[in-house]
Amino acid sequence: DVKVTQSSRYLVKRTGEKVFLECVQDMDHENMFWYRQDPGLGLRLIYFSYDVKMKEKGDIPEGYSVSREKKERFSLILESASTNQTSMYLCASSPNTLNWVGYGYTFGSGTRLTVV
Amino acid sequence: AQKITQTQPGMFVQEKEAVTLDCTYDTSDPSYGLFWYKQPSSGEMIFLIYQGSYDQQNATEGRYSLNFQKARKSANLVISASQLGDSAMYFCAMRAGANNLFFGTGTRLTVIP
Question: Which chain A residues are Cβ-neighbours of B7 within 8 angstroms?
């Protein structure tokens, strides 16, 4: 019954590496999101996408990019990983509906990334 | 601008007792939705309950209820008959206007046997 799948549960990468975090959803949702979660700061939106090949910056896009080549897949890219990007990363999806405010998001299980 | 405030970083409750987790919000949009999510130590975010700004009645889902006070802009989560499995982080979130889901900083609930 898995709906949003994040490819890795735990990752350890070195400073300066290019890192790919993958997210796949099987609910045919139009909208996909990447958040990072840090203690005391809650969840902060990095990037989101309303359609294939479309992307929008969230609140903290610096140091990140994204790719959405297929509707079901949304990738987060850390171009050159730094230690301040050590965090929990959560992917989410939601449908595109007229009742916009009535729909929350379905989340993946998260990826704990450590940059050393 | 949207704002969600959760003022309780941590809460403790005795098993089988009820607990209230506080959430206040701010938005200028008349149409908005309020959500509560639970995050166990495993990491996944689990949707618990939803309240729409035009809903007249407080939302309830099993042991969860949302105490919605629109004039005070508060949307507190009430968990009745706490269980050990309720120990987790709890996040209040809001979606308003054309904006995305916006989260508070969370409350860590610990249920004591």
Answer: none
